[in-house]
Amino acid sequence: MTTLDSLTAGAQVGALLPLLTAVVQRPAWSAKAKKVVAVVAALVAGIGTVAANGGWAQFQHGQLTAATLGGVLLASQTSYDLLWKPSKLAPWIETLTTKKAPQQAG
Fold first, then answer.
1. Does residue 102 fall inside a structural domain?
2. How far apart (Å, rounded) are the C-alpha atoms in residues 62 and 21?
3. Assigned domain for 52 exists
4. Buried b (16+ CB within 10 A) or exposed e, 69-100
5. 55 SS3 class
6. Full-prediction pTM beyond 0.85?
7. CA dihedral 84, 87, 91, 93 (to 10 degrees)
């Protein structure tokens, strides 16, 4: 696997990651909490991407691993800011997957 392959795989995963992250995030969470979840999700997805594209032995290549992790993180943040947030799709998913509290009788 080359650095370009690593960046490409990371960008592909990262571009869709905000939609998956929106499933667990909640509209009421602070911006900081959402950012922490997004970064952790990107790191986990990056590790999965490295393993899927080169097997566990791929982690011996620090530069390729870092390129993949960076690609996922950069693509996820960029795609969220430029596509998923303005289109309101990610916020809609957050709202859709948030459990509603039962209304109290009264």
1. no
2. 26
3. yes
4. bbbbbebbbebbeeebeeeeebeebbeeeeee
5. coil
6. no
7. -80
Contact status, residue 4 vs residue 71, Cβ threshold 8 Å: no
- Going by C-beta distance under 8 Å and a sequence separation of 6 or more, which residues neighbour residue 31? none
Considering its fold, how many domains does the chain have in total? Answer: 1
Q: 1, 58 in Cβ contact below 8 A? A: yes
Six token digits for residue 93: 């998913």
- Condensed to tens digits (0 to 9), the pLDDT of residues 15-63 reads 999 999 999 999 999 999 999 999 999 999 999 988 888 777 777 778 8
What would the pLDDT profile of 77-100 be if each residue is shown by its tens digit? 999 999 999 999 999 999 999 877
| CA–CA gap between residue 51 and residue 45 (Å, rounded) | 10
> CA 34 to CA 66: how far, in whole Å?
23
Comparing C-alpha atoms, which of 16, 31, 37 is closest to residue 79?
16
